[in-house]
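Morning run. Coffee first, then this:
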Amino acid sequence: MSSVFSDKDFLAINVIRGLSLDAVEKAKSGHAGLPLGAAPMAYVLWSRHLKFDPTDPKWFDRDRFILSAGHGSMLLYSLLHLTGYDLPMDQLKQFRQLHSATPGHPENVYTPGVEMATGPLGQGVAHSVGFAIAEKYLSAQYPGHVDHYTYALCSDGDLMEGISSEAGSLAGHLQLGKLIWLYDDNGITIDGTTAISFTENVGDRFAAFGWHVQTIDGMDLDAVDAAIVAAKADPRPSLICAKTVIGFGSPKLAGTNKAHSNPFGAEELAATKAALGLPNEPFYAPADAYEAFSEAVARGKANHANWKLEVAGTALEGLLSAEAPNWETLLPIISDKVATRKASETVIQAVASSFPGLIGGSADLTESNLTHQKAFPDFSPTEPGGKNINFGVREHAMAAAVNGITLHGGTRGYGASFLIFSDYARPALRLSALMHCPSIFVFTHDSVGVGEDGPTHEPVEHLTSLRAIPNFNLFRPCDGNETAAGWKVALTATETPTLLALSRQALPPLSPSSVGNHPADRGGYVLIEDEAAVVTLIGTGSEVQHCVAARETLAQEGIAARVVSLPSWYLFDQQDEDYQDSVLGEVPTVSIEAGSTLAWPRYADVCIGIDRFGLSAPGDTVMKELGITAEAVVEAARGLVHSH
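And here it is:
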């Protein structure tokens, strides 16, 4: 078979390798092994198949490329540089240095052309499922105007991580035919060959998930090209198992775990370049290497220009460019005693039609999380325009997919489960914050008030640990109107994810009904003021009612108290100092929350909470047994006042 690839193509591949070697060597840190082995298949994809426009990295109908094996970041940076993205050679020379656009692992907030932050293995492939879901949904909603592929380059490590199986199973079930993973099957991990820990038949695993699977020589350009063509033609998601050689070209390190990471050193670097036919000159990139990508760049720009003409004046253009309708007027006023998970359901039904891009679902807990958009069908292979996603019992893959849906653009993803199971999703929750990705997470059954299911299902440390994530808005409302306010904050966020921590049990209405402009928008506020107050009572969620009841009891004893609701520490900490002081007040403070007290001393002098695991009993009984009561607030306030 004659090849369509020329000497210029092979030169470009070796330049990618050389740039990667030089950047790692200059930084004295990094991973050159993957770029050396994976450069051929990455080059074929970028030069022959990937649809992109470097002058507009966010072009909506571009193909998405995700380097799930983020440790090989110099492969991506070299490709972005050579194809004309705003990543000049000086940035390649600043690899892994302070404030550069070439951090150690790819980050979407720093580097044009990077779709998401990758590094924790398995996350890239799992997020890619969300990107593919978004494409399939939007393609059904706007036929003819959304038509692109999602590619992920993954490693042995990605596919060892359990999240890859969750995500692969979901993608196969949903028949995401425009999802293609290129598996850099080099048989090497940090500790040695994969034979020491990873001997399963990966292809068979994914075939069982319902994937189209091919096994090829990943160093053969024609084989890679043919495999991508076949993958694009198949209606199933595709896995291309590409046999490669880690550290290809290195006389001493190729094919060994020593090629995985760390610089090669001057002697081996020179020998490797010689074996690749490159001059021993740092950051060598001749004009022909750039020229090798010129056809792909021109093709992408032409596709982009044609697409803009085609979507002009269409509903898709409206989705992408117009401001959202005045949906805030649709936010319901909820004056009943109701569980905040139920209030959340009411909000979802009220605003769903105003957000055509709002899609999501639950990890097999829809009837408990109450996140189903009742006016819309489920998203499925036969109903790709459905807005409700059945994620199954896959919390981690769900959270990753939700991020992918949100990062894709034109869609906003949400996912739901019990708060206790945020443990299963935490890596993806953290990434949402790091990526400035405003995903929405609806975690119900937010305390030991869950009751009979016992300590395995009762969150204790979760509120505190999730609040510790930077740029992450945990919002725990005290009633229905605060819940509506929380949803408004979540839907209007542009760079911060929101986690709504919602109750199973019914809570009395306490907060103002001005849901479109609620004081909870600022994270915390004075719910009940008293100028004569000698103590402030602070609560979140289901415990605010105990503060209100305690205030009434204290008043009968001649002790005046004020009450503060603090649903979002994240938002409250963003307020100016004067506002914070006006809310917290100048008198001693008691806090109550059905969770860890570890961080509460920042706001309170006395902290009532739970610093042990829960119990199995009816929820009210557990709360009383663990001291989460109005009586406990009264006792703490009384003692605090008398001690002052």
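The CA atoms of residues 64 and 150 lie 5 Å apart. Good start to the day.
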